[in-house]
Specification:
It contains 9 helices and 7 strands, in the order βαβαβαβαβαβααααβ. With 264 residues, it is an alpha/beta fold. The chain has one domain: Rossmann fold. The chain has a 7-stranded parallel beta sheet with strand order 3-2-1-4-5-6-7, with helices on both faces. Helix 1 packs across helix 9, helix 4 runs parallel beside helix 5 and helix 7 crosses helix 8. The longest helix is centred in the middle third of the chain and has 29 residues. It is globular, with a radius of gyration of 18 Å. It binds nicotinamide-adenine-dinucleotide (NAD).
Length: 264
């Protein structure tokens, strides 16, 4: 694939003000796509991200403040992008949150939030973007699932249910779109080194009286056989490949990037 193979394409990436989504936005911008960034964060930080990304890669970058809890805002995000760029060529459903508690103590509002942000938002965005992609005869729908789309952990009922849902939604979209030139796939990372993960280390060191290395190896990477974190750039690399012509026949799959986690 040529370096700027996404020139002329527009990508909407939900939850792209941080972590994996931001890395995908950078990779797509570097490949020449114009970008709709989305996610939470303070205005100055987001303004700086928009300016930096556009300047670094010579592409148009806009920001949508759509809250993934709100279907109307998600639909408007897609429609506004279509008005400005013609069509949403690439949709990356990436926004996600977590809450950890046993099922019988799991707060209803946390269940509803996780299902809304981690699953329903992807359905709503697809629903809005698919007609334009189908009409153009080209499109890429990529969703960030998780090792928890294939396996479970205790105390993560809503997250595991939502991520399994993403895998099923992806397969359904792939079948519905099979002859349209639009592919739908998901990516399932294991533990990824993001600011979110890094920030948990000092508290865990204190709580368990462990060194940083012990927290990483014995707590965080316990299920990841390679005993290394996945990097956001590795996830973005797979999202970039899925956007390429080489991946045109890859649809309905769930690609693991988990250091062997789900091979066990
Ligand atoms: P992150 O917290 O760095 O990024 C999450 C993004 O979602 C942020 O931009 C945040 O602002 C946005 N977001 C949260 N609530 C939102 C809302 N209501 N509306 C709009 N945007 C909202 O986390 P990350 O680790 O980069 O996670 C990104 C995705 O990857 C998630 O779907 C997560 O489940 C998945 N994932 C992460 C890991 C990991 O280890 N970090 C592993 C597997 C899967």
């Amino acid at each position: 694939m040529s370096e700027r193979f996404l020139s002329g394409r527009h990508a909407v990436i939900t939850g792209s003000t941080s972590g994996i989504g931001l890395a995908i936005a950078k990779a797509y911008a570097k490949a020449g796509a114009s970008i709709t960034l989305n996610g939470l964060g303070d205005k100055a930080m987001i303004d700086a991200l928009v300016a930096e990304l556009g300047k670094a890669h010579g592409v148009t970058v806009r920001y949508s403040a759509a809250n993934m809890l709100k279907p109307d805002e998600i639909t408007a995000m897609i429609k506004d992008a279509e008005k400005e760029f013609g069509v949403v060529d690439l949709l990356v459903n990436n926004a996600g949150i977590q809450h950890v508690a046993p099922i019988d103590e799991f707060p209803m509002e946390q269940w509803d939030r996780i299902i809304a942000i981690n699953l329903t938002s992807a359905f709503v965005a697809m629903r809005a973007a698919i007609p334009g992609m189908r009409q153009k005869g080209w499109g890429r729908i990529i969703s960030t699932a998780s090792a928890h789309s294939l396996t479970a952990s205790p105390f993560k009922a809503a997250y595991v249910a939502a991520k399994h849902g993403i895998a099923g939604l992806t397969k359904t979209a792939a079948l519905e779109l099979a002859t349209s030139g639009v592919t739908a796939n998901c990516i399932s990372p294991g533990y990824v080194w993001t600011p979110l993960v890094e920030a948990q280390i000092p508290d865990t060191m204190k709580a368990r009286n462990m060194t940083q290395e012990q927290v990483i190896q014995e707590v965080m990477l316990e299920r990841q056989p390679t005993k290394r974190f996945v990097t956001v750039e590795q996830v973005a690399g797979t999202a970039l490949f899925l956007a390429s012509d080489s991946a045109a026949e890859i649809t309905g799959t769930n690609i693991s990037i988990d250091g062997g986690w789900t091979a066990q």
